[in-house]
Specification:
Length: about 775
């Protein structure tokens, strides 16, 4: 008899609740969980393909260890022994900086990826950390760090209540949203329009999201910062600003007008390829809307002035008084966030506290640009990276100049990968540690709950028991931490116990903590959960803003929505900082398998500010110092042809091309070209063309379509599955080409170290 089990989908940021059908130990179906408190039954084709992905025969079943140059199946003991033999010895000889760590995107979709990498980095003591963030949202972290003092204080558009949404460089109808966790984003956009609201989309392509909009502006790629600066300048010049209560928490309002003075609509219009009137009208409409939210994503981040654009998004939200108010852009308060603390000055956000060895790139949020990984490996000298820990990452395809990185990885003394697939990157590892498939793993969204448009909390225990010979990814991480620390052989539970002990000791010694003066050992004994990671989750929930703070157990009520301490305001003193009977913990969460709704987003200012001044820093120094470069861009002669990416609904970066149900149809690696450009360049639909840029050239089939604007071509990323030594039988049959081979890694947004993946110049010639 088939049975069902609930599982939050790990395949994108929407975090939909799925109901899996399970026969034996196999997932045979997936549908949306209609009782999920957040996603209410929504599912997309990727979620529906959960079973196919879970049971992909190409998934590795056992660890692989390199012997005599070849990767061979090995036992877990042999695999961790190989790590223990290699890494501590390299650290002893060459120092901690000789080990690099790469963390890829799925780490934000697994419990292991959130709970253990901080412990791994601490154990290694290396500053050579590279993550997918510098191919993605690092500009937003930097702008939030500078504005609010906390790089994770990222406001999200209040989709369900706003009257006006200005969306730049995002295509949530296909990506399902990013830094804005909202199951059924498309439905929510339609609902916005149905209730009389306005959707404006800024994108050089007429995307499926743009097709839903009231107004679609298709500017030249890379010009968002100029457009946004002109919008802000217009609000200031026409006295349309109305920051309201924000004014008393904001510094730099006076200086902003002068800093932006040069960015008149007339001045930026040629660079954006919009008219000055289009820009002025948009500014006026934004100001006139009762509530509005400005939201920018990939297309405004992975560009030349990504940090400035990310900053200006929030400048507009502040100038219009929409930051931190319902209907505007609000800060979520997740159940595993630290409980709100009193308002006041904080430590601020530092940039460039250290620099990369070869090119001297400044760190941002303790990370170095992933674009610089290859040179850090292949450039000789002291401090060179000789060993690499790669977790859920495929930078050979996802980062610039995969060919150079490919060669660099091949030259490493040692590499260990935690990855379910033998792919373009993991094929270079000396040890591959494959996690159990998602059906056998527990799930909690530590990351995405902090970007969710509604406060809620959900947990999925494993839907299927761990198969013989498999290892849970949390245990893999814990054993890896031990192996690199010279403690191979120790019980992995010790890693979780140490983490729990450290947190409790700190809380019990903190005079502002609800746990002050209590016995950490006794409290550790009270934690619920059948595994180390569950106990750590319980601890975070109990200490969090809705937590029970170890109050004596209360009866589990039938419905939690009403009596959980939803949205305790930041900075609240007194009883809010005390034990809270009926508050959240793991047991309570387990009793609500469809999740617990914690209510709509609420204002959180000034409590969440952590700048040194304790105020919003509207014009922080690093931003002011960067503005001259944006001014200079006004005089640039735009390139004749630039490239942008695109995402397909049934794809996910580099690793979903191996699931047959998700391949084919329009999910293809083609170069989209506007008919006028195609005619000018002599290109034919379906025929190959040669595309060339800084980093190299590719042959790619042309798809002629007016969905891209003139002067812009579009090629998706995550393709190029034609390297030897991988085990991706479905993907290898239709490999596509790697767009990132067009880049040499030198184009970066300077403040954040984020690669310029959109809006770089290319040349195109037909292949006869
Ligand atoms: N040109 C261009 N390049 C881009 C982008 C773009 O828009 N244009 N987008 C960028 C963005 S936003 C991102 S986030 C990056 C993504 O780039 P990466 O961070 O490299 O992520 P993926 O390509 O998704 O590769 C994920 C890896 O994780 C493995 N994996 C899958 N599930 C699990 C799991 O549960 N556990 C573990 N341990 N491993 C798992 C997969 O097999 C794969 O090897 O790409 C970036 N690259
Ligand atoms: N189906 C699917 N879903 C995904 C992913 C996937 O690969 N496939 N990846 C996931 C990941 S890791 C992420 S980070 C998110 C990203 O989610 P989104 O940010 O929604 O990313 P995209 O769908 O790439 O949309 C970016 C849009 O920016 C446009 N653009 C390019 N350059 C510019 C520019 O200079 N200015 C403006 N205004 N627009 C520009 C592009 O045409 C594109 O339509 O999606 C996630 N969800
Ligand atoms: S929208 Fe995202 S989370 Fe929801 S089912 Fe699709 S892939 Fe999964
Ligand atoms: Mo991403």
């Amino acid at each position: 008899m088939p049975r069902t089990a609930l599982r939050i989908c790990p395949l994108c940021e929407a975090t939909c609740g799925l109901t899996l059908t399970i026969e034996g130990a196999t997932v045979t179906g997936a549908r949306g969980d209609r009782e999920d408190v957040f996603s209410r039954g929504f599912i997309c084709p990727k979620g529906a393909a959960f079973g196919g992905l879970d049971a992909d025969p190409d998934r590795l079943r056992t660890p692989l260890v390199r012997r005599d140059g070849r990767l061979r199946e090995a036992t877990w003991e042999e695999a961790f022994q190989a790590v223990a033999d290699a890494v501590p010895a390299l650290v002893r000889t060459y120092g901690p900086q000789s080990v690099g760590v790469v963390l890829g995107n799925p780490n934000v979709h697994t419990m292991a990826g959130q709970l253990y990498p901080p412990l791994l980095l601490k154990a290694l003591g290396t500053r050579n950390l590279f993550t997918a963030s510098t191919l993605d949202q690092m500009p937003k972290h930097v702008s939030s760090g500078l504005l609010f003092g906390d790089p994770f204080a990222i406001p999200v558009p209040d989709l369900d209540r706003t009257d006006f949404l200005l969306l730049l460089g995002a295509n949530p109808v296909e990506s399902n949203g990013s830094l804005c966790t909202a199951p059924d984003f498309p439905g929510r956009l339609k609902a916005l329009r149905a209730r009389g609201g306005t959707l404006v989309v800024v994108d050089p392509r007429r995307t499926r999201t743009a097709a839903l909009a009231d107004r679609h502006l298709a500017p030249r790629p890379g010009s968002d910062a100029l457009l946004l600066a002109a919008l802000a300048r217009t609000l200031l010049a026409e006295e349309l600003t109305d920051p309201g209560v924000l004014a008393e928490h904001t510094r730099g309002l006076g200086e902003l007008a002068e800093a932006l003075d040069r960015f008149t609509p007339e001045a930026v219009a040629p660079a954006c390829d919009l008219t000055a009137d289009e820009i002025r009208d948009l500014a006026r409409d934004l100001a006139a809307a009762p509530t509005a939210a400005v939201y920018g994503r990939i297309g405004s981040c992975t560009v030349e002035h990504g940090t400035l654009a990310s900053w200006l998004v929030d400048v507009l939200n502040i100038l219009t008084g929409n930051l931190d108010r319902p209907g505007g852009a609000l800060f979520p308060l997740s159940a595993t966030d630290r409980a709100p603390r009193p308002a006041g000055p904080g430590k601020g956000f530092g940039l460039g506290r250290w620099h990369s060895r070869v090119s001297g790139h400044p760190e941002a949020k303790a990370e170095l640009p992933l674009s610089a990984l290859a040179e850090e490996i292949d450039t000789p000298g002291e401090g060179r990276i000789r060993a690499l820990v790669s977790i859920a990452a495929n930078p050979v395809l996802s980062a610039p100049d995969g060919r150079r990185l490919d060669a660099a990885l091949a030259g490493l003394d040692f590499m260990v990968s935690i990855d379910p697939y033998l792919n373009e990157t993991s094929r270079h590892a000396h040890v591959v540690l494959p996690p159990a498939p998602p059906s056998q793993s527990a799930h909690f969204d530590f990351a995405f709950n902090t970007f969710a448009i509604r406060n809620q909390v959900r947990y999925s225990p494993p839907a299927v028991p761990l198969e013989d010979g498999r290892m849970d990814e949390c245990e893999i991480h814990a054993r890896l931490v031990l192996a690199v620390s010279g403690m191979h052989g120790t019980d992995p539970a010790a890693v979780d116990d140490l983490a729990i002990g450290a947190t409790l000791a700190r809380e019990c010694a903190d005079p502002d903590s609800p746990l002050r003066g209590q016995d950490p050992v006794r409290l550790a004994g009270l934690l619920a959960g059948g595994s180390g990671p569950e106990r750590r989750l319980d601890l975070m929930l109990r200490l969090g803003p809705y937590g029970d703070r170890f109050a004596p157990a209360a009866d589990l009520p039938g419905s939690a929505a009403t009596d959980t301490r939803a949205g305790a305001p930041d900075g609240a003193a007194g009883p809010d900082n005390a034990a809270a009977p009926g508050g959240l913990g793991l047991e309570r969460l387990l009793a609500h398998p469809h999740g617990i709704d914690l209510g709509p987003l609420r204002p959180r200012l000034p409590g969440l500010l952590r700048t040194r001044s304790g105020a919003i820093e509207l014009l922080p120094d690093p931003i002011a110092a960067e503005l001259p470069r944006l001014r200079a861009a006004l005089a640039d002669r735009p390139a004749a042809l630039v490239l942008v990416g695109r995402r397909h609904l049934r794809s996910n970066n580099s690793w979903l091309h191996n699931v047959p149900a998700l391949t084919g149809g329009s999910n293809r690696c083609t170069l989209q070209v506007h008919p006028e450009d195609a005619a000018r360049l002599g290109l034919t639909d379906g025929r190959p063309a040669r595309i060339t840029a800084d980093g190299g050239s590719l042959e790619v089939p042309v798809e002629i379509t007016d969905a891209v604007r003139t002067g812009v071509v579009s090629l998706p990323h995550g393709w190029g599955h034609d390297r030897p030594g991988t085990r991706l039988s479905v993907a290898a049959a239709v490999p596509g080409v790697n767009v990132n081979q067009l880049l040499d890694g030198s184009r970066l947004d300077p403040l954040s170290g984020t690669a310029v993946l959109n809006g770089f110049p290319v040349e195109l010639t037909p292949i006869p």
